Amino acid sequence: MPEQPYEPERAIAGTGMGGAMDLAASEATTLEPAPAGPLGTGPVGKPRSLWSDAWRDLRRNPVFLLCALVIVFLVFVSLWPSAIASGSPLTCDLARSQDGPGPGAPFGYDGQGCNVYTRTVYGARTSVTVGVLATLGVSVLGSVLGGLAGYFGGVWDAILSRITDIFFAIPVVLGGLVLLSVVTSNTVWPVIGFMVLLGWPQISRIARGSVITAKQHDYVQAARALGASDTRILLRHIAPNAVAPVIVVATIALGTYIALEATLSYLGVGLKPPSVSWGIDISAASPYIRNAPHALLWPSGALAVTVLAFIMLGDAVRDALDPKLR
């Protein structure tokens, strides 16, 4: 009888269920384990999340590290200004009006005889407080309204879109001149409320577009098919995947709000004396720019560095969170 050619399929079929299981088990024992990657990264080929990839890129970005150090220093100065500046920013001596740098006053004195260094340090508290609180308010309000409009759509989405169009048509500085000119309070809350009132439409549109994109993914459809509620889908599935653009825009907007507070204070409708603000100091030093340029240089420089640090930090975060740039 001639020999039949060996066929693996026929051989496995001939062994029966037990033989097939034994063969699979013997083959499984010959598989080599996946090679381990560097310490802390797990096996080679293990996928990383968007956030872990972004954090890895940010740690290697010198611009991000430099801006982060500047911002950490500003936060420290805002919380404990007396740690690096002695005396009160409201203590002035007209006898030293427009004097240059000297002992105890490395930045000199302004037109009222106030220590420019002390006022510049204490002015960081106001600027950072206004920027952070305004950004939080804008991000929360805009994300909630835009996210709900993008998820449910329909009439709610149409109404919100028309409302945002109205707010976009209002010039920010002109709106501040009109609204804040009738406010008599000397605290930061009217300025923060104004920024939230006119700033939420931008975040709302970003959040709306992100939610519309995220809700079309298969994992959202699967969660809806399994009976998940709208609240659970929004909080557990859509929000974590739609929040990245909001974080990027909010980070950049923080520097913009700091500049806006200084602009409104310079024009006399934001914070008012005796509050300490970079905008107030720039406004007070402008008439003495020829005789005492140092009084204008230092608060202006501090404002420019702060705004630039937040904007460049936002650009670095955007580059790290954008998959298209990888």
UniProtKB/TrEMBL annotation:
Claim: Transmembrane is one of the keywords in the record: yes
Keyword Membrane: yes
Occurrences of domain ABC transmembrane type-1 (ranges): 124-314
Localization: Cell membrane
Gene Ontology cellular component terms for the protein in this record: plasma membrane
GO biological process assignments: transmembrane transport
UniProt KW keywords: Cell membrane, Membrane, Transmembrane, Transmembrane helix, Transport
InterPro entries: BP-dependent_transpt_permease, MetI-like, MetI-like_sf, OppC_N
Main localization, broad class: membrane
Listed SUPFAM superfamilies: MetI-like
Membrane topology: Multi-pass membrane protein
UniProt-listed Pfam families: BPD_transp_1, OppC_N
Transmembrane segments: 63-80, 128-151, 163-182, 188-207, 242-260, 296-317
Taxonomic source organism: Streptomyces monashensis
Taxonomy of the source species: Bacteria, Bacillati, Actinomycetota, Actinomycetes, Kitasatosporales
Name this protein carries in UniProt: Peptide ABC transporter permease
Homology family: Belongs to the binding-protein-dependent transport system permease family.
